[in-house]
Q: What sequence folds into this?
C-alpha cells in the first residue's frame, strides 16, 4: 500500500514586525528562471504562468540562483507556484490550494475591482502579539 507524498510548499511566509507576509512566484514577464533553465523544464504558458515540468527538471538549481525574489525552492525538483492547473474548474477560495488552506484568510482571490473594495476597508489594529485588538482568547 503506497503512501501519498506530502505536498511541497509553493509559498514562502515571512514574518515582519508581527505581520505575516505570504509570498509566491511573481510569474515575471521576463522570467529569468525560464531563461536559466538548462533542460527547458521551466516554461511560460500562453497565460503568462511560469510552470515547471517536473519530468524534465534535473535539479541544477539555476532557477533558484537567478530568481530575484528568492521564491523558487530547491526540493527534489524546482518547486514554485504553478497557479494550480488541476483546480482550473473551481471558483472562489477553492481555485487555489494556498487560498483554500490559509488558516487566517489572509489570501484572497478576486478581480482588480474586488481588491480595490478590500483595500478601501479600514484596517483593524493589532496588538503586539498579532491578535486583533479587542479579540478575546477562549480558555
A:
Amino acid at each position: 500500500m503506497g503512501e501519498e507524498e506530502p505536498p511541497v510548499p509553493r509559498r514562502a511566509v515571512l514574518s515582519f514586525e508581527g505581520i505575516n507576509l505570504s509570498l509566491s512566484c511573481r510569474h515575471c514577464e521576463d522570467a529569468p528562471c525560464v531563461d536559466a533553465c538548462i533542460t527547458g523544464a521551466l516554461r511560460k504558458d500562453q497565460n503568462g504562468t511560469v510552470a515547471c515540468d517536473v519530468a524534465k527538471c534535473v535539479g541544477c538549481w539555476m532557477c533558484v540562483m537567478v530568481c530575484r525574489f528568492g521564491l523558487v525552492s530547491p526540493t527534489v525538483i524546482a518547486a514554485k507556484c504553478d497557479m494550480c492547473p488541476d483546480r482550473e474548474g473551481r471558483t472562489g477560495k477553492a481555485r487555489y490550494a494556498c487560498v483554500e488552506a490559509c488558516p487566517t484568510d489572509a489570501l484572497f482571490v478576486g478581480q482588480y475591482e474586488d481588491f480595490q473594495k478590500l483595500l478601501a476597508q479600514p484596517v483593524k489594529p493589532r496588538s503586539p502579539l498579532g491578535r486583533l485588538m479587542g479579540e478575546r482568547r477562549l480558555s
User: Anything to note?
Assistant: Residues 131-139 have pLDDT under 50 and may be disordered. Residues 19 and 61 are 30 Å apart (CA to CA). The chain has four helices and six strands.
